[in-house]
Amino acid sequence: MKKHIVIVLIALMSAFLLLNLIWLGWRYMAYSGFAEGMTRTDMSSPLFPTYTAKDEDGFDYTVKYPDYLSLTGNLAVGFPGTDDNPFTDGLIIWPKFMGGYEYGVMLNFKEEGGSGYMFYIDAQGNAVEEEYQSIADEYREVISELMELARNTWNLD
Predict the structure, then answer these.
(1) Local confidence band at 108 (pLDDT 50, 70, 90 cut-offs)
(2) What is the rounded CA–CA span in Å between residue 58 and residue 86?
(3) CA dist., res. 71 & res. 51, Å (int)
(4) How far from chain centre, in Å, is Cα 42?
(5) Whole-number mean pLDDT of the chain?
(6) DSSP labels, the chain
(7) CB 103 within 8 A of CB 91
(8) Residue 91 pairs with which residues in a beta bridge?
(9) Which strands, in side-by-side order, build the sheet including 74-78?
């Protein structure tokens, strides 16, 4: 009986180890290209890497690898913040496990806890939910600029 328990425990531990190795390999292959040339943040750890960069115009770029055994990380690009207001309009991109991307925007946040808009958009910058389309139209230039910066930085097409 003890022999069977040991075999089952070894099989479970081996499966867990294999799952972790597969996940680590996938995560590295899926996200390392996005983080090329970026700096690892202070909040980053070996298990939860996060990278950041700033371009010559002050736009912020971030790559957050997926959390432990998660398949969801994100890329983000935001307008330059100021000392008076570090909260800016931004675009968040979630690479999908099987290819492609989901997009979301954060618009018009003036302060922490302040009001603004957060909603999903498609690759053309249109709101996924009809109720946000008028806001997407109002911020069309902002969304287009963020999408162009993201496409140029990460070759998203």
Answers:
(1) confident
(2) 12
(3) 17
(4) 17
(5) 90
(6) -HHHHHHHHHHHHHHHHHHHHHHHHHHHHHHTTTTTTPEEPTT--SSS-EEEEE-TT--EEEEEPPPTT-S--EEEEEPPP-SS-----EEEEEE-TTS-EEEEEEE---STT---EEEEE-TTS-BSSGGGHHHHHHTHHHHHHHHHHHHHHH---
(7) yes
(8) 77, 105
(9) 39-40, 50-54, 60-64, 74-78, 90-95, 101-107, 117-121
Going from the C-alpha of 90 to that of each of 27, 38, 71, the distances in angstroms are 24, 18, 22
Question: Looking at residue 48, what is its pLDDT?
Answer: 84
Q: In the structure encoding, which two tokens stand for residue 156, read together?
A: 């998203």
Q: What is the mean pLDDT of residues 112-119?
A: 77
CB count within 10 Å of CB 118 equals 13
